[in-house]
């Protein structure tokens, strides 16, 4: 089935087409959300919301981009929204005084290493990196996450972010520079 | 002493650079997470439960207007009740005043009633 046919079937309300869509794109959607959130449960919840939104608004899909670009866009927006909500919640909890300041919390990151010590070290490093990514401005965060965790090309990221390739390259350059600074401050304070 | 301090700072800077590089490279060890194989079942169940709840009515124009009308009605009933109770209190006070005046054979003028009400 071509993408055009799949979209037509989806617009006609076909359950089979919807199942096919989930099967074909679940991996990319979940992994994109996971790249932003670094939490498996939250990533799956957001992925569910992404597909529900697609189901509800497929009728108004203008096809000015591919289905996968549209899915990446929704996944990115929903993940960024959740990160904002998290930050708001944290601020409120800080104000009320209930927030447990666990800055170096271990995130449930998968790793392809076998050695337990190495796994632990990688988890720690990825958690530190994720904390630094969280502090980047939204556009840099999106470009960096899609590039590093979803391995998308500059052109693909440009299409998702509805911008030019040179802008994406500039965003990635600034993201790397800012991350180096943030990590430098982190390691300087923790007295390596 | 100064040379020793300088070499310590250099060492620390090098260590930090090394840590930064290692941390940035940790992305290479990242393993994709693609979710549970039952995700589509959960999504379909969610869509179905969303339809059963019929959220259309709660968000509808009629429902919103009904809520506003109900609110206005409650406020109107409260205002009327307050007004009626105030009126009946002042009438009761007037009749009590008259009966006391009659008992003691005092003749009251209109200003007495006004003063009483003002109090």
Please describe what this structure looks like:
The complex is a heterodimer of chains A (192) and B (119). Chain A is mostly helical and 192 residues long. Chain A folds into 2 domains: 1-99, Orthogonal Bundle (Rna Polymerase Sigma Factor, Chain: A); 102-192, Winged helix-like DNA-binding domain superfamily/Winged helix DNA-binding domain (Arc Repressor Mutant, subunit A, Orthogonal Bundle). Chain A contains 8 helices and no strands. In chain A, 32% of the residues are buried. Mean pLDDT of chain A is 89; it is low at 99-104. With 119 residues, chain B is mostly helical. Chain B has 5 helices and no strands. The longest helix of chain B is centred in the last third of the chain and has 43 residues, at 61-103. Chain B is elongated and about 110 Å long. The mean pLDDT of chain B is 78.
Topology:
The complex is a heterodimer of chains A (192) and B (119).
Chain A: H1 3-11, H2 15-37, H3 40-57, H4 67-96, H5 116-134, H6 138-148, H7 154-160, H8 165-189
Chain B: H1 2-25, H2 39-53, H3 55-58, H4 61-103, H5 110-118
CATH class of the largest domain in chain A: Mainly Alpha
Distance between the termini of chain B: 91 Å
Name the helicity range of chain B: over 70%
Average pLDDT metric of chain B: 78
The largest sheet of chain A is:
none
CATH hierarchy: architecture of the largest domain in chain A: Orthogonal Bundle
Write a concise synopsis of the structure shown.
Chain A is mainly alpha-helical.
């Amino acid at each position: 089935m071509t993408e055009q046919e799949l979209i037509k079937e989806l617009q006609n309300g076909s359950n089979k087409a919807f199942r096919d869509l989930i099967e074909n794109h679940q991996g990319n959607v979940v992994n994109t959300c996971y790249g932003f959130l670094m939490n498996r449960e939250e990533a799956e919840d957001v992925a569910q919301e992404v597909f529900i939104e697609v189901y509800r608004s497929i009728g108004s899909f203008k096809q000015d981009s591919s289905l996968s670009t549209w899915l990446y866009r929704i996944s990115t927006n929903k993940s960024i929204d959740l990160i904002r909500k998290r930050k708001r919640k944290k601020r409120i909890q800080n104000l009320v005084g209930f927030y447990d300041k666990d800055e170096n919390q271990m995130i449930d990151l998968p790793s392809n290493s076998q050695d337990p010590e190495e796994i632990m070290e990688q988890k720690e490093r990825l958690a530190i990196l994720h904390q630094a990514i969280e502090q980047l401005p939204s556009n840099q965060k999106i470009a960096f996450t899609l590039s590093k965790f979803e391995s998308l090309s500059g052109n693909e990221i440009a299409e998702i972010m509805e911008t030019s390739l040179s802008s994406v390259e500039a965003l990635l350059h600034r993201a790397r520079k800012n991350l180096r600074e943030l990590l430098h401050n982190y390691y300087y304070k923790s007295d390596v | 002493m100064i040379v020793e301090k300088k070499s310590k700072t250099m060492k620390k800077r090098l260590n930090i650079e090394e840590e930064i590089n290692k941390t940035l490279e940790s992305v290479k060890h990242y393993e994709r997470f693609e979710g549970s194989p039952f995700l589509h079942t959960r999504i379909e169940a969610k869509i179905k439960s969303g339809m059963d709840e019929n959220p259309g009515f709660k968000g509808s124009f009629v429902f919103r207007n009904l809520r506003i009308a109900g609110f206005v009605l409650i406020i109107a009933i409260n205002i009327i009740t307050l007004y009626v109770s105030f009126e009946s209190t002042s009438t009761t006070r007037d009749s009590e005043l008259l009966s006391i005046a009659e008992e003691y054979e005092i003749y009251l003028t209109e200003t007495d009633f006004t003063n009483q009400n003002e109090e």
